[in-house]
Write a structure and sequence with these properties.
disordered N terminus; 6 strands; heme binding; Chalcone isomerase; metal-binding; iron; 11 helices; Cyt_c-like_dom_sf; 6-stranded antiparallel beta sheet; Cytochrome_P460
């Protein structure tokens, strides 16, 4: 199906209203035609239990085209087209969209493939021909009769504009990746990015802590059958070095901590048979954002359990020990014990 035209045909001023009505009428007719074609295809034996044909997918994509109001194309992206904005859009994408569209935005996930129609490859020409404004409308409002939900209540307008910048930068990012990475490197990146699709409902996304593995160590701990390393981002480390929280000041917004737990094991092969890390158990996150988490002491919490057999993380839940609720306040009750230390248990280890 050819791409629909986006620019209005020039008309005399006196006929502007008439032209608008005709455009709307034409759009309604196109929508009815697409729906009719889809219904006709379903009557010929198309079911949700089998992969849609190329024709069905094309019809579903055409339905997305027709669903976008003409007025949506008049909006302008208020954010600059820069690498920084696109990078921020990628963080939003990994936290909210990658579960269906995949970390590389190609729709290559179990959830995405099993949708009817399948989740779209955002690098495709069909998606790339949409303007920022049209993508903004789709993300905010969703598309009926497809798996694309409305994100208006979950993703802010500002973050949605960042998303559109990121989506339109995907072809360039793909080209850069292909020119610098061999096949084995590509597989490694894809595997490492799986965890960045996780997000606590109404809370933290794993993607907010990208690079935590290389953060400086704040301290180590050994509690029962677990050993842990507590890590801090540069903002957190600088706050500790300035005397926080011992000087009575709170940690600044942007301070982040990660606590990696391993199952403890005794290594009899080393002198003194020390207790050392065994298989990884989970990773806990904290971030200071006094506005976003005003009702939990200014801190957001998240727990992501690790399954060593599959090499995958998952959200903590009430069956875990200790039980973990899936919300932004996870851990807050426990941390109120150290409210006078701005809810932080760990002291910075002298070195």
């Amino acid at each position: 199906m050819p791409e629909r035209k986006r620019k209005a045909v020039g008309l005399p001023a006196i006929g502007a209203r008439c032209g608008s009505d005709r455009s709307a009428t034409l759009k309604h007719k196109l929508m009815l035609g697409v729906i009719g074609a889809m219904l006709g295809a379903s009557l010929q034996g198309c079911t949700a239990g089998k992969a849609p044909s190329e024709g069905e997918t094309s019809l579903a994509n055409a339905a997305k085209d027709v669903a976008i109001p003409l007025e949506a194309g008049k909006m302008k992206n208020p954010l600059p087209d820069t690498e920084e904005v696109a990078s921020q859009g990628q963080e939003v994408f990994l936290g909210s969209c990658a579960q269906c569209h995949g970390p590389e935005a190609r729709g290559d996930t179990n959830i995405g493939r099993n949708m009817a129609p399948p989740a779209m490859d955002l690098t495709s020409a069909h998606v790339q021909h949409w303007s920022d404004a049209e993508l903004f409308w789709i993300i905010q409002n969703g598309v009926r009769l497809t798996g694309m939900p409305a994100w208006k209540s979950s993703i802010s307008e500002n973050d949605t504009w960042k998303l559109t910048r990121y989506i339109h930068n995907l072809p360039r990012l793909d080209a850069a990746s292909a020119s610098t990475a061999g096949p084995s490197q590509t597989r490694t990146v894809t595997s490492a990015q799986d965890k960045y699709t996780l997000k606590v409902p109404n809370g933290l996304a794993f993607a907010e802590f990208r690079g935590y593995e290389g953060w400086p160590v704040i301290a180590l701990s050994h509690n029962g059958n677990a050993v842990a390393a507590i890590l801090g981002n540069p903002v957190m480390i600088e706050a500790y070095k300035s005397g926080i929280p011992g000087n009575g000041k709170p940690f600044p917004d942007g301070a982040k901590m990660a606590k990696v737990h391993w199952t403890a094991k005794v290594d009899v092969g080393e002198p003194g048979a020390p207790t050392v890390p065994g298989p990884q158990h989970d990773v806990d996150f904290m971030v200071k954002d006094s506005k976003r988490f005003a009702d939990s002491g200014g801190w957001g919490y998240g727990v992501f359990e690790y399954d060593a057999a599959s090499g995958q993380f998952r959200l903590g839940n009430l069956t875990d020990k200790p039980p973990q609720a899936n919300d932004a306040k996870c851990g807050f009750t426990c941390h109120t014990k150290v409210k006078t230390k701005d809810y932080v248990f760990t002291d910075y280890g002298r070195r």
